[in-house]
Amino acid sequence: MNNNQRRIAELIPHKTLYTGEKIPAIGMGTFGSDRFSAEQISQAVLGAVRFGYRLFDCASVYENEAMIGDVLLQARNEGIMREELFIQSKIWNDMHRPGDVLLSCAKTLKDLKLDYLDMLFIHWPFRNHHAPGAKVSDRDEQSHAYVHEEFMETWRQMERLQKSGLVRHIGTSNMSIAKMKLLLRDCEIRPAANEMELHPSFQQEEFFRFCVDNQIQPVGFSPIGSPSRPDRDRTDNDYVDLEDPLVVDIAKTHGVHPAIVCIKWAIQRGQIPIPFSIHEKEYKSNLLSVLSDPLSPKEMELLKSVNRNCRLIKGQVFLWDDIDDWRILWDEDGIIRSR
Ligand SMILES: NC(=O)c1ccc[n+]([C@@H]2O[C@H](COP(=O)([O-])OP(=O)(O)OC[C@H]3O[C@@H](n4cnc5c(N)ncnc54)[C@H](OP(=O)(O)O)[C@@H]3O)[C@@H](O)[C@H]2O)c1
Q1: Domains of the chain and any CATH numbers
Q2: For the whole prediction, is pTM greater than 0.90?
């Protein structure tokens, strides 16, 4: 690692979690969308950590943690300290039961070659499972609506992990305001972050505000509008952030790719974006976008109008029985559908 790259890492701004610990204001995703191999992704992680990324968003279900662990170890052997890194992972839906949460965390730690995680999320607030590469119409026989007692049983295990020191912070993902209110009512340890879909055409203003007001740091996934997402997460009416005329216009003004406008918007709004790319030019420009030429207050204001409430990661594969309206998963009317 050369001095220039160390300087880039040092220049990246940080946010402060409610625990007082710092987290980089931008990270890198590691989900290959069923398109990129673990080898390709881990090589990108190696290039990214050498370039100055310090936050990596991993998950057991991405099936690449062992290879990512190898390159993170390599980076530490090259002089990057463990304390400089902020590594997140997630518990997959089939590992929610007592005992399994600990097992899953232990496997992730072993694969990533770490002795603690900076953040562990519950990936989805359901035990509903789907096999890697599942089709939209696939349903698991065991799937059912959200059960708060089940979720709290899982959360208690997360709290145990934090108390044990194996995990520094615990968090949620793919939640709703209604579910979050129940969690805040019943938890002993509050979530430090909530990983949620956030991009210009899906701003989730109310939920975003709710998180900020409750000192839960929003981490924004699919910040560019996930142009490479798997087919199961595509529908005909999906909005394309990268082709939005205003986003394209602002990109021209700044002389950057529209993806960079999405990332600048995310950082300036206050969520932590975790863009994914295996391409060196892309992941480098994504990180550098935080360092110069911010969007103007007027551009930030204008970008509010790009919102189309267009959720891309709808979660159809987690539905149950013959239900096919994915909106049920998201409690849009404020009511949690239960069994
Ligand atoms: N918690 C959850 O349930 C959840 C769900 C989804 C994602 N995530 C996390 O969020 C991360 C990011 O989300 P995502 O992968 O869905 O979508 P994304 O980051 O919005 O989009 C990634 C794609 O954008 C393109 N791209 C990236 N940088 C670019 C640039 N500078 N210029 C042009 N194109 C660029 C790349 O496409 P090409 O490869 O075609 O160039 C890349 O594959 C994931 O990797 C994962 O870690 C979490």
Answers
A1: 3-330 (3.20.20.100)
A2: yes
DSSP helix/strand/coil, 327: helix
Annotate 81-123 with DSSP letters as a single string. Answer: -GGG-EEEEEE-GGG-STTHHHHHHHHHHHHHT-S-BSEEEES
Residue 62 annotated in active site: yes
**What ligand 1 atom has the least distance to the C-alpha of 174?**
3
User: For residue 164, how far is its CA from the centre of ligand 1 (angstroms)?
Assistant: 33
321 CA distance to ligand 1 middle (Å):
31
Active-site annotation holder among 18, 53, 62, 146: 62
pLDDT value of position 339: 60
Residue nearest to atom 27 of ligand 1 (CA): 277
| CA–CA separation, 36 and 32 (whole Å) | 5
Mean pLDDT of 147-172: 98
Nearest residue to 147 via CA among 155, 138, 139:
155
Spacing, Cα 228 to ligand 1 middle (Å) = 7
Q: Nearest-CA neighbor of 224 among 85, 59, 64, 31?
A: 31
Report, as an integer, the average pLDDT of 201-208. 98
Give the three-state DSSP class for 211. Answer: helix
Dihedral of CA 291/281/30/276: which sign?
A: positive
